[in-house]
Amino acid sequence: MKNVNTLFSYDKYYRYIRIVASVTTGVSLIVIWGWILKIKLLTSFLPDLPTMKFNTALCFFLVAVGLLFKTSKRLPRYQVYAGIINVTLLILAGITLLEHITGVNYGIDQLFVKDYFSIYSLPGRMSLGTALNFFFLGLGLLFIECKTRLVAQVCQYLFHIITLISVTSFLTYLFGVGIETKLEFITSMAIHTAVLFIALSGTSSLIRIDLGITSVFSKHSIGSMMARKLFLQIGGMVIVLSYLKILADRYQFIGLEFGTTLFGVLFLVLSLSLIWFVASKLNEIERQRQKINHNLSIAQTFLNSTPDPIIIVDQSAKIFLFNERAEEVFAYTEDELNGLDLDIIIDKRSLSKFHKRFKKHLVEKVKKNKKKPLEVKAVKKTGEKFESEVSFSRITLLEGTFILVSLKDITVRKSYEKELKKITKKYSAANEAAVVGVWEYDIVKNYLEWDNVMYILHGLNKEDFNHAYDAWEKVLHPEDKQRATEEVEKALMGEEEFDTSFRIIKPDGEIRHIRAKAVVYRDNEQHPIRMLGTNWDITKEKQAEQALQNSFRQNLIFVEQAPSAIAMFNRNMEYIAASQKWKEDYGLLEMDILGKSHYEIFPEIGDEWKKIHRECLEGAVNVCDEASFEREDGSVQWISWDVRPWYKTEGEIGGIVMHTANITQFKDSVRERLKIENILNKTNEIARIGTWEVDLGKEKISWSKITREIHEVPDDYRPQLEKAIDFYKEGTSKKSIQSAVTNAVRSGKSFDLELEMTTYQGNNIWVRSIGQVEMFEGRAKKLYGIFQDITEIKNYEISLKETNEKLNAILNSSYVSIIGTDKNGLITHFNKGAETFLQYSAEEMIGKESPVIIHLPEEIEKRGKALSKQLNKNIQGFDVFVELPKQGDYESQEWTYVRKDGSTFSVQLVVTPVKDDQGEIEGFLGVAADISELKNAEKEIKSLLSITTEQNDRLKNFAHIVSHNLRSHSGNFEMLLDVFVSTYPEFQKEKAIELLQLASRNLKETIQHLNEVVVINTEIDFKMENINLRNAVKATYNSISSLASEAQVEIINEVQEDALIKGLPAYVESILLNFITNGIKYRSHDRNSFVKLSSYQQNGYTILDVEDNGLGIDLNRHGDKLFGMYKTFHHNKDARGIGLFITKNQMEAIGGKIEVESKVDQGTNFKLYFKN
Amino acid sequence: MKSNNAINLTCIIDDDPVFVFGAKRIMEMAEFCNNFLVFQNGEEALTNLKPIVLSGESVPDVILLDLNMPIMDGWEFLDNFIKLETKRKILIYIVSSSIDPADIIKAKSYKGLNNFIVKPITREVLSEIMRDAVKH
């Protein structure tokens, strides 16, 4: 059950606040009045008590008026007034407070009236307590409704402090006791001041009942309830007890200590009894509440389990409560239903009777069974309506009278009712129609007994019937008489069942068809004795049958005469009828097809068609507007067909009708048209031609698809007249389209513009816009035209222009000589460059001379001879330049040009034929560049080359000397030493001889190294081979594996399988060997050593990475001489300082290079760049 | 000192008298051979060896041939000498100070050549030659 209204509201308490404020206003006005008229009693309330100071009264007045404004929600500006009043109050109280604190008189005390009655030294000044209270009150009222809860909370407690101070003050008056001097500021508060403060602070705390102590009291919970009840009682009790104790003390009835003890005991006893009393009361309340809750939950369960929507409304028919079913049925959400007018869910037509009944229930309790339930149409949120039965019941609650409305969906019931009615109607009709007469024929007595229906069937009166067999025979139709009587006889003979039909003639001449059935009864000897039968009228059926047969026949005729191809088949697909056209179309003219199976005539009919036929025999209709069939001769025939069942009677399919049409011709023309349209569309699309139209009357612009595409607008973009023009580029384009449109509208002038625009996507394009105007009665009505993206064309145009300009620049450049001639060699063009080069002016040459004059005659002759030989025909003069270009595209040849002054220079001359549109040669263009400098450079290079060659030869020579002569000598030297030592063994131990042998060996080694280097440097002609680096590394490793394992160095080959490099196998082997043995040689003995080889590709190189973790090289110290000859960097006895030098040379010889990274005592990484 | 090995006569063709002297001495000391035929160049060698080879008498067992010689170098000598029909197989060694790979490759192309010995000649090389000679 959903609770709709919250009963919780602050406003309820505002009433109290306003009452207190009003009273305060009155009191303060009285005091003010007292001061003005100098009547002391009015200011002190009781004689001899402290007066309420004028300022105090004024402050009370301000507080009260402020509160009145604050609690009035009538106008928003009242809140502002309240604020201003509070601020004034704060200032007044604040100044007084300051006076108290500083002891200085600011003159505010007697600002308004003079204090005539004061017995104190500070006339007119309100007491410290009062000032403090006002200050707190002002502060609290100003900020109590602050949104920050903490601030509001503080304000609330300020109110509570005021209450506390004033209650204390009040009690001192009440008990007539003095106050400790330290708290004297409280006593000087007048009694009515104290009372007013209590009232004001108490009620002010009601502004925010959710805060402070007030919150404890204001809630509905049991705790608050207890607080409310107990507080007043205990409070009262404490006051009374305290007073009694004071009296006891004052008059010394009992001792002070005993009195205090007694006070304590009394307090305990009384509070206990009060608590007991209140608690038992509260328990009772709680029990009732639980009971109510229990009942409520039962009610809720009941309501929600009710299958029907139940809605409880108040007297004004506003929805107050409802069950879940109501939400479901009416499809409203909970929130929507809350407070909704009940009328919304009732159909308008049902409203008046609904209201009538609703009002009746509102006034009195109506007994349930007294009235027929009300049926109305209910409306769902979706607008859907349904029949529903409404029942009302009145509930009286505390809040008033409510009506429980239950709306039962009776749609289904209603539909059943309708159905029932229909059936009943049908049933009675059927009864009337099926009239069956019963007869009995006693054969022995020849007595025919008829029931009433028989008489009706025959249209006879009972009196007119003589009950003899003849009487029946008489009514029979003459044509049926014989057959019918025979059938009766047969039945009697036992030959056949009597089940037949025949016609009778009624007395009024009407012929009716009668169906008759009978059973024959026989005696023991099988003689028929009795016949019992029934007759009924089947005239209608017979007529229908007749009609059907007639129509069938008509249909057959229709089919046969139809101008289109139609055939009719029975259920066995045998021809019943076929039109002439059908026979023509399918070549059946010569055949007698009726009664023959379709499949028999066309054995080639496929299963697909058989299936269609079968389906149509089941009632399906198969229509095809067009289908293509390829004939045996390859032509395509378009056929449309319609196959559907025909019905013998309703529901009984007699067979199918097929209708086919040859639509090939029609189809062809349609296709032709579509093709043209398609081509046009395609053309438009390819040409990017769009259309546009501006309706000037409606100020509407429309764009075709292509136009939209050219604008690159999104699908949902709607072009607007003003915006369309914004697509054009500012400046010329925009101006010209604007003026063209204006002109067109004004004078009907069409336009054709090429414009630059920025598309929706921000692309810059060129478009061509052609516009036409449709004029109507001298005014432009419509503007329409085509729109084409010509960016590409425009770009070509622009680039063509640029190219032309560039070409012109070239033609006129003075760095190249360009000479144009006609076919016969007459100069037609002589550019600036030619003028500069050749010293002839264009005027001297054009139309006058042939390029022959700027050439050396002997060169022309020489070239002529060469060409004559090559082409096997006589070529001379101008033709030597153009004979080859005539055949090919152009010819580039070195020539010597002769200046006007006879000096010469070398040129590279390119001769190109100039062709016209048809590709016919019109003339030639000779472009010549001065290559004198090039020639000189060439010469220089050649001389350099010869020097280099010479040097290389010398180097080779040197190599030979090293290789042979030096070695022979050193060899001899060694050999002789050997001989000497062998001959004179006693010298073996001679130091000098030993050293000589060492020197000999060193010499040999040095020569060998030198030789190796020289060989590398001189051998340029070797053949580079493709080498698989991985395999090369493997081979090298195999050759040094024992060395590696001895030195415990792990060789890791991670070179790519397919790393192919170009090199000399011997070199590559040497290089690899060098690096790997280096890695082994310069290993570190402090760790497990390895040499790792890996490879990768970079910038056309295959890079072999040889990484070790050996001793490393100090590159800062040795970097520059790492690859120098005889450089060693370790104190290794094997180090010869030649390995890296040779390796580097070898690498360079095969087009590679080496890079190195190394850190001392960490390892070295060589990167070998091999060409791949 | 008569050796009982297969080599009786060694022919040295070299223009370097120092080499010839040293080689002879080493061969003698190593008991390689005691009889030598020495020629200063290819032409001299060819002229003198031709009748010897043709006659088949006192044919040297081994020829040590230098490449670089005046008048006729080792290659030319080889070209001509190979054409001669020898009755006995003569072991021919090129003994050169050239370590030019081109020379070594060229030497390999001669069928009749046994080896390419880089100078200086040592006893180890001699004993190898002796092993070759014994085989034949």
From TrEMBL, chain A:
<dbReference type="InterPro" id="IPR000700">
    <property type="entry name" value="PAS-assoc_C"/>
</dbReference>
<dbReference type="InterPro" id="IPR013655">
    <property type="entry name" value="PAS_fold_3"/>
</dbReference>
<dbReference type="InterPro" id="IPR004358">
    <property type="entry name" value="Sig_transdc_His_kin-like_C"/>
</dbReference>
<feature type="transmembrane region" description="Helical">
    <location>
        <begin position="230"/>
        <end position="248"/>
    </location>
</feature>
<feature type="domain" description="PAC">
    <location>
        <begin position="498"/>
        <end position="550"/>
    </location>
</feature>
<feature type="transmembrane region" description="Helical">
    <location>
        <begin position="49"/>
        <end position="69"/>
    </location>
</feature>
<dbReference type="InterPro" id="IPR035965">
    <property type="entry name" value="PAS-like_dom_sf"/>
</dbReference>
<dbReference type="GO" id="GO:0004673">
    <property type="term" value="F:protein histidine kinase activity"/>
</dbReference>
<feature type="domain" description="PAS">
    <location>
        <begin position="803"/>
        <end position="874"/>
    </location>
</feature>
<feature type="domain" description="PAC">
    <location>
        <begin position="751"/>
        <end position="802"/>
    </location>
</feature>
<feature type="transmembrane region" description="Helical">
    <location>
        <begin position="81"/>
        <end position="106"/>
    </location>
</feature>
<keyword id="KW-0597">Phosphoprotein</keyword>
<dbReference type="Pfam" id="PF02518">
    <property type="entry name" value="HATPase_c"/>
</dbReference>
<keyword id="KW-1003">Cell membrane</keyword>
<dbReference type="InterPro" id="IPR000014">
    <property type="entry name" value="PAS"/>
</dbReference>
<dbReference type="InterPro" id="IPR003594">
    <property type="entry name" value="HATPase_dom"/>
</dbReference>
<keyword id="KW-0812">Transmembrane</keyword>
<keyword id="KW-0808">Transferase</keyword>
<protein>
    <recommendedName>
        <fullName>histidine kinase</fullName>
        <ecNumber>2.7.13.3</ecNumber>
    </recommendedName>
</protein>
<keyword id="KW-0418">Kinase</keyword>
<dbReference type="Pfam" id="PF08447">
    <property type="entry name" value="PAS_3"/>
</dbReference>
<dbReference type="Pfam" id="PF13426">
    <property type="entry name" value="PAS_9"/>
</dbReference>
From TrEMBL, chain B:
<dbReference type="GO" id="GO:0000160">
    <property type="term" value="P:phosphorelay signal transduction system"/>
</dbReference>
<dbReference type="InterPro" id="IPR001789">
    <property type="entry name" value="Sig_transdc_resp-reg_receiver"/>
</dbReference>
<feature type="domain" description="Response regulatory">
    <location>
        <begin position="9"/>
        <end position="134"/>
    </location>
</feature>
<keyword id="KW-0597">Phosphoprotein</keyword>
<feature type="modified residue" description="4-aspartylphosphate">
    <location>
        <position position="66"/>
    </location>
</feature>
<protein>
    <submittedName>
        <fullName>Response regulator receiver domain-containing protein</fullName>
    </submittedName>
</protein>
<dbReference type="InterPro" id="IPR052893">
    <property type="entry name" value="TCS_response_regulator"/>
</dbReference>
<dbReference type="Pfam" id="PF00072">
    <property type="entry name" value="Response_reg"/>
</dbReference>
<dbReference type="InterPro" id="IPR011006">
    <property type="entry name" value="CheY-like_superfamily"/>
</dbReference>
